[in-house]
Design brief:
propionyl-CoA carboxylase activity, 3 helices, mainly alpha, Acyl-CoA carboxylase epsilon subunit, rod-shaped, acetyl-CoA carboxylase activity, single chain, 34% helix, 70 residues, ACC_epsilon
């Protein structure tokens, strides 16, 4: 493919400028590599439910200390 050759062409119909822009946008999005999602439970909220976490456990003041900043 040469530098002067278009990446795609309209074979039939007369698309509007907006339709062509939408097509180009869709092609660009599909050509990017997918991002890797973060592991499940990587948030503070998710880590708080794991056994052995540094968050307060059940006890007399657990409800109070659970709202304190770390």
């Amino acid at each position: 493919m040469s530098a002067d050759e278009p990446l795609f062409r309209v074979v039939r119909g007369v698309p509007t400028t907006e339709e062509l822009a939408a097509l180009v946008g869709a092609i660009l999005v599909r050509s990017r590599p997918a991002t890797v999602p973060s592991p499940a439970g990587s948030s503070t909220w998710g880590r708080s439910g794991r056994p052995g976490s540094a968050f307060p456990t059940a006890g007399p003041d657990a409800w109070r200390t659970s709202g304190l900043p770390r």
